[in-house]
Amino acid sequence: MTTLRYLTAGESHGPALTVIIEGIVAGLPITAQQINEQLARRQKGYGRGGRMAIEKDQATILAGIRGGKSLGSPISLQIQNRDWTNWQEIMSPQEDAKVEERQVTCPRPGHADLPGAIKYGHRDMRNILERSSARETAARVAAGAVARRLLAEAGIHIYSHVLSIGGVASTTEQDLYNQATAGKIQWEDLQVQADASPVHCSDKEAEKSMIAIIDQAKAQGDSLGGIIEIAAVGLPVGLGSHVHDNRRLDSEIAGAMMSIQAIKAVEIGAGFESARLPGSAIHDPIYYHEEKGYYRRSNRAGGIEGGISNGEPLIVRIAMKPIPTLYQPLDTVDITNGQPVKASVERSDTCAVPAAAIVAEAQLAIVLAQALLKSTGGDRLEQILERVQQMHCQAKNF
What we know:
Elements lengths: L4 E5 L6 E7 L9 H12 L7 H4 L4 E5 L1 E2 L2 E2 L4 E6 L7 H4 L21 H8 L5 H7 L4 H17 L3 E9 L2 E2 L3 H9 L5 H9 L8 H16 L6 E8 L15 H10 L4 E6 L10 H4 L3 E4 L3 E4 L7 E2 L2 E2 L4 E7 L10 E3 L6 E3 L10 H24 L4 H17 L1
Antiparallel strand pairs: 1-2, 2-6, 3-6, 4-5, 7-8, 7-9, 9-15, 10-15, 11-12, 13-14, 16-17
């Protein structure tokens, strides 16, 4: 069984972010440009803060790829932090670092500041927020770019779009929901529309209202969250397993989505709606056709049954809370003296929902690539693709 795993390192204002990816098979075509395209998508989005005006994320391939193809050895990628030049004396790993400057002693409600400081014993909460920052997701997107290249070779593609921001929902949200659960969305067309939108939304009318509410929140020193839908199309039947909790595909996906900063809820397929309707209105009847094999005319299961992919599009929705750094900060306590104060303010976004959609795509790509390699094994790309084809044939001719 081939195992795919990755590890990121780096602080928000450190010199660089690094990711090492282990388990990618040999022969996978991958270039820095393909990775950088995904990094650029993450940096877009109406409502982003000043940090994105500084950074221009580019991945440097340090190991594991030669001549545009993976070697089968660990892949190492690095993304430089341009803002490091403004922080190198404060964030230096050397003993003479000016650690007494820019200290954070007033924790932000909703952030990792206080619980992290208590857990690790840091009186300066910069030692927590530098790593808990969503800046780390740039490294995850780089890893996800490699994973999605593997999926694309296997005919699996990932899409996303924003359904709502703050109190503004897409006017087509219910229609999109109905189409998704009916298995009728044209995902490629929807993705083109979403990528062309500054808020990553396919609904042009809702886009205007979303931009307006982001402007309003920014003027008030506030922040906004939203709901994102992510889909994977082209999956073979049989990824994941029912036999153990940590091998269930839906369990792996939920964990990956909840690992993204500020994500507070996940649903697959009909999700919470499943709790409100009877079984006859939720479960997807099964049909058979000689040419396409077993299929469903609806997709309320969201492409997973019993922890196993069933061949239908995989549909995931996530809820992102508003970013906890506010320019009109909330009440908190200064941990140096216990006195009530306003929370610390770090440079931040008003709304990062469009960017979170790209991070969610990357996380889904990683989980699905992991599941694909577990099911197919192999050390070379051609072995994986041959076994994926076998999985499709097996499901069709079962």
